Fold this protein.
Amino acid sequence: GDPLGVNVRAVSLDGGRVAIEATDVTEAHRVARVRRDFVANVSHELKTPVGALQLLAEALLDATDKDPAAAIRFAERIKHESARLGRLVSELLELSRLQGAEPLPEPEPVDVDKIVVEVLDRTKTPGSAKHIDVVSHGPHGLVVYGNENQLVTAVVNLVENAIAYSPESTTVSITTSVSAGDETGHEAGYIEIAVADQGIGIEPRDIDRIFERFYRADRARSRATGGTGLGLAIVKHIATNHGGRVDVVSSVGVGSTFTLRLPARPAEAAMALPPSVEI
Ligand code: ADP
């Protein structure tokens, strides 16, 4: 690290004079560091489940004759761990696609009702396994501008988290609304999709970090739920790629609400930031 973010170099000129050349390298250093950290994190995140799978396979081989009941337990853990590894790989690919490998698809009008129906369908199984009702509220006929697949992915991630971090027999709600905007009209022209749960909530010290790749407030719980630590990073990228954003309000032991704010007009969608270079 260069605390000043400046490369300083002495250059000798004719006649014994010396010039000082300074180059601002803050951004270049930051990008290089983020990339290094990311590769280190990915290696670690991949090695852990691969190591676990090796040990479990050895234990399974060992137990096959001696203890068939234990062998079944090891086989089930292999299944769980390999499914998580598969999810990790596909989410990494998804994230790297979103991070600039491909240009943002042309924003198209997307029916919010269609997003909600698709999300309810895709989250039915995890919800009913925990007796969690996933319900939706809001006016029909809302339209946002963007890419339908990405938007469904974002809301599915939020609802899957809501289910994963909630106790059994609670409710998760998806509420859609039109953002009224302030008196100057700022923030008008946006649609909000809010996913609220009655779950464990998020500590204030974690709340600013949960959108970072691989950040989990509670690693053990995240692993147990099959989490990869990439879901919210993907949601955040999708929101910014759409010229929108995602916010969270949470209270420990009460629940969390994640709100996606998306452009309701093509102009706002076209103002999306260029894909980030963080990979
Ligand atoms: P993970 O795969 O671990 O769920 P995410 O990126 O989706 O990764 O979420 C990051 C972390 O944010 C989670 O590990 C969890 O600590 C916290 N989190 C996300 N959604 C919720 C929620 N609805 N309620 C409580 N904590 C949540």
The chain has a mean pLDDT of 87. The radius of gyration is 23 Å. The longest helix spans residues 26-66.
